[in-house]
Specification:
The protein is built from three helices and eight strands. The chain has two domains: about 60 residues; about 50 residues. By secondary structure, the chain is an alpha+beta fold.
Amino acid sequence: MKAFYLLLFLSLSILNVSLACRKKCTIDPRVVRCSSQINYVCAFFKKNPSDKFLSQMDVINACQACIRPGVLSYEEGKCKARKVYCDPIFRPEACTKEYVPVCAYSWNEGTNEWQGKTAGNRCTACADASVDHYVKGACS
């Protein structure tokens, strides 16, 4: 049996599957006041109750993540998913000039489509209030 678990662990490691510890939100938002201390977490939530898959969003700390409606769990650190949603409540006010391009998407009312534009990094993408989400890498 030990050999099975060792083989399973090695297989997951080779496939680069995340074994990070996801924590369940247990905070009652009616009685908790959260600090604005920065210790980023990746919050997992459903944009719509009928969604089959969880979306991800960087939030400044675990308390701020868990008081949001729909957030089910979180992991320490920023999100590593391909599509990450910007936090609509805490938009960055200052960003570094580090160039790690992302493709930031905003909804275009005129064309009824998502419109992507390259931002210098995820902070500058989410500092723009019109941006809903981004993907890693420059827009093509």
